[in-house]
Amino acid sequence: MRIRIPAGLAAGIVLALGATACSSSTSSGPTGTSTPASGGNAGKTLTVWYMDGDLSDAAVKAINDKFTALTGAQVKVQIQQWDGINTKVATALAQDNPPDVLEIGNTDVPLFAASGGLSDITSALPDLQAGGQHWLPGLEGPATVGGKSFGAPLFAGNRAVIYNKKIWAAAGITAPPTTFAQLTADLDAVKAKNTAPDFSAFYFPGKYWHGALQFVWDAGGQLAAQSGGKWTGTLESAEAQKGLTAWKDFVGKYSSAASRDVETTAPDFNTLFAQGKAGAILNSSINSILKVGPSLKDQIGTFPFPSATDGRTQPVFLGGSDLAIAAKSKNQSLALAYLKAATDPAVQASAIVGIDHWIPASTEVIDQTIGSLPATSQAFFTAAKTSVPTPAVAGWATVESDKSIDDFFADIATGRKSPAEAAKSLDAHLDQALNAPVS
Amino acid sequence: MRNRSLNAIPTSAPGRRGTAPPRRVAPGPPGPPAARRPRRTPQPYILLAPALVLLAVVVGYPLVRLGVISTQGFGLRTLITGRTSSVGAANYTAILHDAQLAPILLRTVVFAATLVAGTVAVGLGAALMMVAVGRRLRSAMMLALLGAWAMPTVASTLVWQWLFQPTYGVVNWLLTQLRVFGDYRQHDFLAHPVSGFVVVWLLVVWISVPFVALTLYAGLTQIPGEYHEAAAIDGAGYWRRVRTVTLPFLRPVLMLVTVMSVIWDFNVFNQIWILTKGGPDGGTTTIAIWSFTKAFASQSYGQGAAIAVFSVVLLAVLAGWWVRRLVVAGEEA
């Protein structure tokens, strides 16, 4: 159910990039400011749920300050743990006195939107996107259900290639590749130089759909298409099959045999990389690697995964969070003002990017801030500009939670099923799950 | 009636021998109160009341709620809006017509049967060994068993995941060191349904053996030594004594641990979910995993509840039938 970047990792990014603040503490006391300002809202308090490990205290405070300046109301922040969060959010939304604003993982938003728990903010979009802000499709898409919008983007994180410069240099490569052909040529060289059975030129676990889907999208394929209100799994399409075959060839050639049926965590691919058992991996930050191997700091390079089409990068899956308003909240207009404060371009630039080094809500803010980032962060920002959302429908959470999407890719990587066979059975499951009525 | 039968279990074994040894076999409730039954006194009910109330709240209410939800179209919207709608038996019909039902049931039964057999066999072996060895070794065994028992299942499952994982797995390394099977360091045990099942089986048996072993050991210590002595004087060897003296005496305890193992192993969840998530390709999906994915992955709480009710009924029928059979066999002898 939780589709996003692991919380620990998020906390780590902050540390690794040298931000001064540490990750959100678990304290749930009020951290809002208390400067009553203009408007009749002084004395009112808005309750906001943030997720553990996502935004730092300093970034949350920057948003709260902006909100207080706009409205005069105060903010009570409550930090929630990821474990069992969907059940917790569902229960909270069912209460008569729910939190007013909630941070929700971007692929979980459709689930709650379709169940009637969130407020429709479509009419407020022109105001929220004032100044021609283009929200990232990977964040806005999942929050849009049936043409209506139920959430505003808060931040995102995505994946880029992380490689070990020393291992690559030993194979005679000094510059990161910019085309897919260059990448495979480089990996061939790395592979030829390192022949140990447990070494992977590019370690790519079989159960890693966030990464594997990039190949499908790059070939022009999609998970599912909607027409006439009905979703259809489209992994059997020629484009998707081309992408799946390309992925199978890629992992078959460059990733170890042991990686075919495992997730990223067991064995932990950051550890494999840190111990020199992998020349490159695809991940959302370099920080978990540095935790295992701090000495690698100057040895790590990053670049966006190049597309099979020259001059482009592979579309990425954008993990991240949206802010949504509880339908039963009694402070609807204040809650909307909070969304406005959080998506404000200046706050996004200073807090989300400046403090936390997350990907901000709009492409405009990305362009504006990318120059000021450390070199290893830039590849992630570049890659984020081409992102694809998962199907914006409640049933998507099913496909993710029952692990059928993990099994799908593992079946292909291990050869248990051909891409065509695997696609046939997952398409059937998608047809059923994505169209399941929300009761 | 069933309650009375259960009460009768602990006392049936000595009777079966036709010898009536001292009543040390099991500290069960007083014998069948057949003679006293007509005199209805309120005291027993007053004493029972707190336990009954507690059971009704902690077990009864959730069970009733489960039954109610299983007849409703209960999903996330229901949870948030609180508006429920009855769908009659639709959840049950959907399950019974699901093509997955038969393979999942078969898998669950085979899995539970092999687990129970393994647990009881290993547990009985350990118990017999504890009786046979000296005091120090016995204490060491008890400590080891208690340690395994005290470990939370999630923690031990994560340890298992590490023991059997490619590249860093300890078992992979050990197998490689044996130099018999070749290089196993890159082998992924969980990638194949059979070896995945074996890994889960080992883990569940490892977790379940302590209870069985300690309970059986307690039962063993209650067997009067004279019987073994008499059998030994008559020339019975060790295995003969186990068969003709130990096992008949141990029968009620053995039955108890077997029934409990059946119930537990039928519902194994953590170990399977963490290690294999029911995969590969549904190869380790048992009824507990199925119920969970229906309820919490598909947000169809109604259908998940229906599967749970279905498995409760199935278990009750199986266990009830089996307990009755054993009790009847015990009384006839």
From TrEMBL, chain A:
InterPro entries: SBP
Keywords: Signal, Transport
Signal peptide: 1-21
Family affiliation: Belongs to the bacterial solute-binding protein 1 family.
Domain of life of the native organism: Bacteria
Name recorded for this polypeptide: Extracellular solute-binding protein
Annotated source species: Catenulispora subtropica
